[in-house]
Design a protein that fits this description.
Elements: E1 6-8, H1 15-24, E2 31-35, E3 44-50, E4 53-59, E5 65-69, E6 83-85, E7 90-92, E8 99-101, E9 106-108, H2 122-125, E10 129-135, E11 138-142, H3 150-153, H4 157-162, E12 170-179, H5 183-188, H6 196-199, E13 219-223, E14 229-233, H7 256-268, H8 274-284, H9 294-309, H10 318-321, E15 327-330, E16 334-339, E17 342-351, E18 354-366, E19 381-382, H11 393-409, E20 416-418, H12 425-438
Parallel strand pairs: 12-19
Antiparallel strand pairs: 1-20, 2-11, 3-4, 3-6, 4-5, 5-10, 7-8, 8-9, 10-11, 12-18, 13-14, 14-15, 15-16, 16-17, 17-18
Helix pairs in contact: 7-8, 8-9
């Protein structure tokens, strides 16, 4: 990028730029590879794939996790696909039956007598590992063994998210879509909240002068080191969904605050859930929803409900609570949108080795009563972007924008996008970090350092 206000259009469709990302970004960056509850028991595994690299995330006997390159050391056969459990704690090659323990050490060579000692050195036969660390209920991997520690790479985003209790959250549902859109273009659509009025007008439930298009004080944007970014509530938005005590003209509508949450829940079943709305509606029977104190008391009622239900809850910290309804982007490809004891999470990856397609995963996660967490998280399925049975109105509206973005970015009239210094600084921040990584020199490292 030549400056922070323009992004060259070719970054979103150029094969050369995409190949540079494959070489310089993905093998050297920390990535969210799995939710911890995808692999609850020893021997459980899940495959993580990105730009042709397949990694097995495997739960060990001692509860730790290893990340193993998914290739037989004999003739490179892919060892496992999808998710499941390795029976007997053994990873068996489906081609010739060579086996490895779940820690990657070779345990059996079928037909060993036919091989010379030269090709069967133990260090050569062990499955190659990635760096792996856990944070926030997630498993993170890095193919580069010279990478900095995870929390250093995630600073300061991880520390901020820890304050809203993301480590206590577990998967409610998990779905994905394949979208005709570059992976960067797809996730940038969620770096800001000011598209809400045009894209999701049903969510715009609070009174406001029609001439005030953006409500400048409603959101606050921050670009962080390491390419991460955040938007959260601004000074005029004390609670998500509108200012407390906003006047409502329709006497039948008890509160814009409650109505917003009803629309949000029905539109995506994430961030605000049915149990939250039940708490708010219960309070409406005791306190006039038009009372200026209603929103604050509604949040207080949530904390009381969580305590009574045995739900580990976020700290009652006004600074942390400003993130409710906003989001944090974790470079390079993961977003979390926390709200109350819930979150909506996105992971976006290139798909099918094509710079114009992405694999877009969506999680609704929530905090369950202690001891009543779901046993294992599983992908519900892959669904078309216009599937009304599996996607609510809100994600369908977003998906339509993404595919239009990709079609428009290739117009001969477009050489670059133009960014707002106020609302879109986290987009330019991501691209600046991407540039830094693409310019890095990894050629001086000893062979094998990136994939021990």
């Amino acid at each position: 990028m030549n400056d922070s206000l323009h992004v060259p259009a070719e970054r979103y469709y150029s094969r050369e730029f995409y190949d540079l990302e494959k070489e310089k970004l993905w093998p050297h960056v920390w990535q969210m590879a799995a939710r911890e509850e995808e692999i609850p028991e020893p021997g459980d595994f899940v495959e993580y794939e990105v730009v042709g690299q397949s990694i097995l995330i495997v739960r060990q006997e001692d509860g730790s996790v290893k990340a193993l390159h998914n290739a037989c050391r004999h003739r490179a056969t892919q060892l496992a696909v999808g998710a499941g459990r390795f029976p007997g704690g053994q990873i068996a090659c489906p081609f010739h039956g060579w086996r490895w323990k779940t820690d990657g050490q070779c345990s059996h060579i079928f037909g060993r007598e036919g091989f010379s000692d030269e090709v069967l050195r133990p260090d050569d036969l062990a499955l190659r590992e990635c760096l792996v660390e856990m944070w926030g209920g997630h498993v993170w991997i890095n193919m580069d063994h010279n990478a900095p520690p995870l929390l250093e790479a995630l600073f300061p985003a991880a520390q901020i998210l820890s304050g809203v209790g993301v480590g206590n959250m577990r998967v409610k549902w998990w779905k994905e879509a394949i979208i005709n859109c570059n992976w960067k273009l797809a996730q940038e659509a969620f770096f800001e909240g000011w598209h809400l009025k045009q894209t999701h007008p049903q969510l715009y439930t609070f009174d406001q002068d029609d001439s005030d298009e953006t409500d400048l004080a409603a959101f606050e944007y921050t670009a962080f080191a390491n390419g991460h970014g955040r938007f959260q509530s601004g000074d005029a938005k004390e609670s998500y969904g509108g200012r407390p005590g906003a006047e409502v003209e329709d006497a039948e509508d008890k509160s814009d605050f409650i109505e917003f949450h009803r629309v949000l829940q029905s539109g995506q079943d994430a961030m605000a859930l049915e149990r939250d709305i039940h708490v708010f509606e219960g309070l409406a029977g005791e306190l006039d929803p038009k009372d200026p104190e209603f929103a604050g008391k509604a949040i207080q009622a949530l904390f009381e409900y969580w305590k009574g239900a045995g739900i580990p809850n976020p700290v009652s910290d006004p600074a942390a609570m400003r993130l409710w309804g906003g989001d944090i982007f974790l470079f390079p490809n993961y977003l979390m949108l926390p709200m109350y004891a819930n979150s909506l999470n996105y992971r976006v990856r290139p798909y099918n080795d094509d710079p114009e397609w992405c694999r877009f995963e969506v999680w609704s996660v929530t905090t369950y009563p202690a001891g009543r967490e779901p046993e294992r998280a599983e992908l519900t399925g892959r669904f078309d972007t216009d599937d009304t049975d599996h996607w609510g109105l809100i994600p369908r509206q977003d998906f339509e924008n993404l595919e239009r973005l990709q079609r428009g970015i290739k117009s001969k009239s477009i050489s670059e996008t133009r960014l707002s210094q106020l609302w879109e600084q986290t987009i330019s921040n991501m691209h600046q970090e991407l540039d830094r990584r693409l310019a890095a020199d990894y050629s001086t490292r000893p062979a094998g350092d990136a994939t021990r």
